[in-house]
Amino acid sequence: MIKYNNIICCIAKDETPYLKEWVEYHLKIGVQYFVIYDNNSIIPIKETLAEYIRNGIMNVVDCPIASRPQLKAYNHCLFHMCEKTQWIIYIDVDEFIILNKHNRISDLLIEYDSFGGLSLNWKLYNAGGHVTTPAQPVMEAYIEYLPLTSAVNKHVKTFLQPRYTLTIANSHQAMYIDGYYAVNENYRHISYAFSDFSDEVAHINHYYTKSYEEWLNKVAKGRVDFDQKRKEQEFWDYNPKMIHLKDAIREKFKSFTGKFATPSGLDIQSNPKWSSLLAGIEKQKVKGCLKQIEMMLSKYDVKSLGLYRGQSGISIFLFNLGKLTNDPTYDDWANEVLESIIISIRSVFADYSFANGLCGIGWLIEYLAQNQFIENNTNEILSDLDDLFKDSIFNLLDFSLTNGLLSYGMYFLSRLTNPENFNAEQKKLLVQIVNYLECFLPNNVQDADEPENLTMLHGYLAVIPFLCKVYQININRYKVLCVLDKYVKFILSFERPRNASLCFPNKTQDGTYSLQWNCGDLAVANTLLQAAKITKNKEWEDKALEISLRTTLVKEIENPNTSIITGTAGIAHLYNRFYQHYHIPELKEASVYWLNKTMEILENQKEKITECGLINGLAGTGLVLMSVISETEPIWDSALLID
């Protein structure tokens, strides 16, 4: 029997200072009941909110689950309250429902009674200059919010009707029975966790970072939706007006242990193994080039959806540019591109390739989710692709990265590195791919009628870093190491002392020698270094260094261009990768040399550059430029098997 018009469900851990303000506020606007899951709070929530429990307006459920308890708690509430309430909303203690047109929640909800759910936008608030915890209540202390056009404010939280709901998909959305769905306040159908910002009727105030001190406590206590902790750096991403105080504030809190931190304090370095190559005027010059690339990209209408040469690669550039600059304009643009890809995805259903088709688009979605550019609900988004790939991959006669077995392998790897996804079938398919790759390796190359391909895109080179990735996720490691050893020895057997600098051809017979990402000495050094890291093989590590150092003598390439695949940007990025590992000045100098070449070509030939993609155009060039001025190791280059 329906007892309540609406209830709030949340899961909380160590929110003691904020709980009463949050409960009292929502009671005033007509929330009728609360179900709170206590995830191991130091001060039990049952003690903090005892008076509300006695008054019969709240149930506090102990939830000691250590790993990702949020969805389990949410679905537990759905199951137990489905016949007792007409509406449920799942929000956190830092989220407040704001009614802009009604006085009571029930008056709002009755207008959406015929829908499965009502999704309300976030309005995300930052620290507003607060370094330490203020004395005032949250809603009084924090009044500064991000621009309403910011991509993060497209996130929604949803009132749902349990009678029309199958399950909770994530913290923002549910899955509904046939014929029902969620809408935003303007009655537009909401399929995912995002909607264009609108707050004429209602919205959710999300007090996300609060002060720096409170943010450190938030980082230290962990998350209920992911096993990974938040990053200290995220505070500065949402508080760009406080950037000039960063060093002083960090110094003040350098020995911070907080209420929930470990005694050793917090590691505030996002990745100490990666350092910017440039500073000062040179860094500003790169930023100017990034602005130029952004302007050039805005002129072109790219039709392809593909990862390597289309919109998918462009979206990676835009998401990363938004993160680097803290400019929400780029986030909005990136989300528009991503939405266009998802809407148009059926146009590439016949193309399963990594370069241009579904495997690459699936990889993109996992990359964005796992790096927190979008909500991590990839199981819902990619389930159809998972089913498509089950029976199709072994109809192939090639193993290439662009179109063959490695295409599928890269997609499966991206899925299996997501902690939210466990697909035993995909693991089995990766094992079979490794077995097939062993069969593809020729026994007698010298006697072959046609030369074998030694490139990254279409040949044997890509197999080595791919196998390294399979090894990293702990799949059939002994077999992987055996196959990896065979491929490394096969590639090294084609070293030809043609001249002092370039010794590895692009084919097994009558090959050419060049300096580029796709083939030749730098490409070999890249794959060899990755194999050395996995196997801890010092001989391979030294060989990769030897190859990379002798190629620094090369100062010109044929057909100069700024692309990653055959041009200066790819060369600069590989040298940057080598420098970050070996820390040898010559490698840094080489990276900067080719970086300057890239910027020179951009300036002198900007009217001639029309390609926009990841490997062949402006998006890839821009990502390389970002990597040389960033203090954070790039992850996007895993799409190119560089990392």
Explain the overall architecture.
It is a single chain. The protein has 643 residues and is α/β, with parallel strands linked by helices. Helices cover 42% and strands 10% of the residues. The protein is built from 23 helices and twelve strands. The strands form two sheets. Strands 1, 2, 3, 4, 5, 6, 7, 10, 11 and 12 form a ten-stranded mixed β-sheet that branches. Strands 8-9 form a two-stranded antiparallel ribbon. Helix 18 packs antiparallel against helix 19, helix 21 packs antiparallel against helix 22 and helix 21 runs parallel beside helix 23. It is globular and about 85 Å long. About 2% of the residues have low confidence.
Secondary-structure map with pairings?
Layout: E1 4-12, H1 19-28, E2 34-38, H2 45-48, H3 50-54, E3 58-62, H4 70-81, E4 85-90, E5 95-99, H5 105-109, E6 117-125, H6 138-141, E7 156-160, E8 165-168, E9 174-176, E10 182-184, E11 189-190, E12 202-207, H7 212-221, H8 233-238, H9 246-252, H10 280-297, H11 311-325, H12 328-344, H13 358-370, H14 378-389, H15 405-416, H16 424-440, H17 463-472, H18 477-492, H19 521-535, H20 538-550, H21 568-582, H22 585-604, H23 618-629
Parallel strand pairs: 1-2, 1-4, 2-3, 6-10, 6-12
Antiparallel strand pairs: 4-7, 5-12, 6-7, 8-9, 10-11
Helix pairs in contact: 10-23, 11-12, 11-13, 11-23, 13-15, 15-16, 15-17, 16-18, 17-18, 17-19, 18-19, 19-20, 21-22, 21-23
